[in-house]
Batch of 2 targets.
Target 1
Amino acid sequence: MATASTLPSPPRSPRIPTPRSRPRRAWLRGTRELILRLKGGYLEPFVTLTVPTNLGTPGAANSRAVANAGPAISDVSHRPLLPPAGVPIRVFARVSDPDGIGSVTLRWRLEASGSFTNVAMHDDGLKRRHFPGDGVFTGSIPAKARAR
């Protein structure tokens, strides 16, 4: 009769690591349960997401609030799109700021140059584009001769 100490141990299987998934997730609203459905639908593990106790202060200033933020610059474009040699480039930008705009400056440089050139931009409507006071500022980069 065999005793427990004399029974052969079961064969050892190679260690197979447990698969893990660490997706980035964030709770926005609604239920805190996240369900992961795998292909075939035979396994649906779920986890309860942790929700921070401080969910913010809607309507209040946050940590990035500043008294006077810079202007909003949008709709930047230039004409002509592919300028030939000897043709100036007109640059357009819509600029807005609730505190008003004192001046707008276009800074440009040649690719091989390290220094910038400043050009004043105007919202006067005189550059055959838009209307005076519409918030679209225009500046012009002078024409350059073709490199030989």
Target 2
Amino acid sequence: MGRKSLPYFEENTEPLSARIATGLHKIGLAMKQQTWQQAAASKPLPWYAEEKLRAGAFCAFVGLELAEGRRGATWQAWAVGDSCLLQIRENALLTAFPLTSADAFNSRPLLIGSQARHHPETAQAMRRAHGVWQPGDCFWLLTDAVAAWFLAAQAAGKCPSVILEGLLAAPTPEALAAWLADLRQTRQIRNDDTTLLRITLRGAPDDA
């Protein structure tokens, strides 16, 4: 419970061309955009759907890369929008990226667009962070609603990582669904799509 002090580094100082070359390449954006466009254009659409297609679709993104080498056990992450990465060690929050508090969330985050013309905005919005990990660390990758709940619960002195781990360990997925429904009904979490991914690192770094 609580928060430990562990240095990590967040960057958005690379030239725009470098961010396009590294960040967008890492997430394979150009290929995904092309696949989406081909799928969308493969069948006739009503006029209103064609208008939506021209406008494009938008989403948040957070990705994590783990490594072990000369610099030790390291991680780096990329994010666009308000999906978050949270690094937990012994129930303490070490890193919250790219948003660090529940108050930082809003209704109009910068997002990844499905059209190639959105590349400059995406590159400008992309954030990169890097740090170190050790066996036993847990990384959560969370969409915005559950990330905001997590950070609020952590700030209130609770152990949201333990809560989520217990729900994921339940014998059926209905436990998580019922928990979310209860939080939404009591307005403890925003009524939005919720996705979460847990990565727990076990054993020696090169065995994790």
